[in-house]
Specification:
Blueprint (H helix, E strand, L loop, with lengths): L1 E5 L7 H12 L6 E5 L5 H13 L3 H22 L4 H28 L4 H8 L1 H16 L4 E3 L7 E2 L10 H15 L5 E5 L2 E4 L4 E3 L5 H12 L3 E6 L20 E3 H9 L10 H7 L3 E5 L8 E4 L7 E17 L9 H11 L7 E3 L3 E7 L5 H7 L4 E16 L7 H7 L6 E6 L5 E7 L3 H13 L1
Parallel strand pairs: 1-2, 1-8, 2-5, 3-5, 4-6, 8-10, 9-11
Antiparallel strand pairs: 6-7, 10-11, 12-14, 12-15, 13-14, 15-17, 16-17
Helix pairs in contact: 2-3, 2-4, 3-4, 3-6, 4-6, 7-8, 8-10
């Protein structure tokens, strides 16, 4: 068996879905489990509906909701053209989902309150809409396809908006669910991002979690490989939207891919790698616009050559500087600091320490008010905005002779605020002014890849 995940841009419209169905049709001998995201931009619209509803702007919420309903109904009719019964069934399913969604949104509008539990139900609707429509479309094209509700397979904690997967339960449940769904059909389809707590209450895996779903399913069924189908021809040497003349990488290691994803690369969700690593399942990042392209293979470290593979970045970060004389010759000070970050659920990327100072970075957009308040009880805290983080990633990158000199020698015109050498020997990261990011990325790409 293989797992095939298709992202939002790969299922954006009739043309994209028709292309996707053809790709799946070419892999039927390998018994694919198809995982799909919501249609492109739909999840963003659902978040916007949540905002309207919480603000009791019912008119705005309903207008946005009807736009989504019309988009999905038009897509279903276009895909099922000439298949009257399937078209009517698809329309019924779409309208049923939207009727439930409308009831939820109206309730939130009336109360002006939006719990995480209700929000998870609203924002996960996009995947149920896309997977149902695509299931009908595959059947319309002659591919007998069964539908699986991901909420019956991907079991998480009851953190509704960012559920923590229960790996043991997933491995216990998924093989049987997939085997049962595969009875008498050519393929099965399910939703990315969507999950459920142990009591069946809807949860989600967090933004971009469809990749993670594919990896979890792949782990559970011991898949031959996991295919992530997107709108680029693999993992690139840098973000092609930011840097010219990038190239697709033929293969990288699990560790390199994890670092790239964590430090800003947009092709994979950062959590995708771990489940695949546990079973040594190769992951392929492929281009749904050009299915014949090789894409990028993500493999065990032993199959990968040394050297720099990519430059990743996080455009908008905060630097938090913590000063306290109490650090000097004190045990447990760092534990105290990081307990505060853990309590407030704020993730830290880079860290640098001296005798009485800690400097660390977090992604902007996280709520750090509580962290700053608690730290200020025993330390001076300064938050610096308008910074970016750049990471040079590759196997044994920190052991390449002259690399540090070449990198920082080429960036003499830019101010560098913080440098962090990864403990894994895979990445070198540093902090710069946000307005310098494009210049630094282009300069480094020329130096390392052109």
């Amino acid at each position: 068996m293989i797992v095939m995940k298709f992202g939002g841009t790969s299922v954006a419209n009739c043309e994209a879905i028709t292309r996707m169905v053809s790709i799946v049709g070419s892999k039927l001998e390998e018994r694919p489990v198809v995982v799909v995201s919501a249609l492109s931009k739909v999840t963003d619209s659902l978040y916007r509906i949540c905002d309207f509803a919480q603000a009791q702007n019912e008119a705005g919420a309903m207008e946005c909701l009807e736009q989504l309903r019309n988009r999905h109904l038009s897509l279903a009719r276009e895909l099922m053209e000439g298949k009257l019964q399937l078209k009517e069934e698809a329309e019924g399913k779409v309208n049923g989902i939207f009727d439930t969604l409308k009831s939820l949104v109206c309730a939130v509008c009336s109360l002006g309150e939006l719990s995480d539990r209700v929000k998870a139900r609203i924002i996960s609707s996009g995947e149920y809409l896309s997977s149902n429509i695509i299931c009908f479309a595959m059947n319309a094209k002659g591919i007998k396809t069964n539908f699986i509700d991901a909420g019956t397979m991907i079991i998480t904690s009851d953190d509704y908006l960012k559920g923590e997967p229960d790996m043991d339960r997933i491995c216990e449940i998924v093989p049987g669910k997939v085997a049962e769904a595969y009875s008498g059909v050519d393929a099965v389809i399910t939703q990315g991002f969507v999950a459920a707590a142990g009591d069946g209450t809807r949860t989600v895996l967090g933004r971009g979690g469809s990749d993670y779903t594919a990896s979890l399913i792949g782990m559970a069924i011991d898949a031959k490989r996991i295919e992530i189908w997107t709108d680029v021809d693999g993992v690139h040497t840098a973000d092609p939207r930011r840097v010219e003349n990038t190239r697709s990488l033929k293969r990288i290691s699990f560790e390199e891919a994890a670092e790239m994803a964590y430090f800003g690369a947009k092709v994979l969700h950062p959590l995708t790698i771990e489940p695949a690593v546990d079973k040594d399942i190769p992951i392929y990042v492929l281009d749904s616009l050009n299915p014949s392209a090789c894409g990028t293979a993500i493999l065990h470290d032993s199959a990968i050559e040394e050297g720099v593979k990519s430059i990743s970045c996080k455009e908008n970060i905060l630097v938090i500087n913590i000063f306290s004389p109490k650090m000097i010759n004190t045990f447990g000070f760092l534990d105290k600091v990081f307990d505060i970050f853990k309590e407030h659920k704020v993730s830290v990327d880079l860290i640098s320490t001296s005798e009485a100072n800690i400097s660390l970075t977090v992604e902007a957009g996280q709520n750090i008010n509580g962290v700053v308040k608690d730290l200020s009880d025993f330390a001076e805290v300064h938050v610096v905005e308008g910074k970016s983080q750049v990471s040079v990633i590759g196997k044994n990158v920190i052991n390449i002779k002259g690399l540090f000199k070449n990198i920082f020698g080429s960036l003499l015109q830019y101010k560098i605020y913080m440098i962090s050498q990864g403990a894994t020997a895979i990445n070198l990261s540093f902090v710069i002014d946000r307005q310098s990011l494009d210049g630094v990325m282009k300069q480094l790409h020329k130096l390392l890849f052109e």
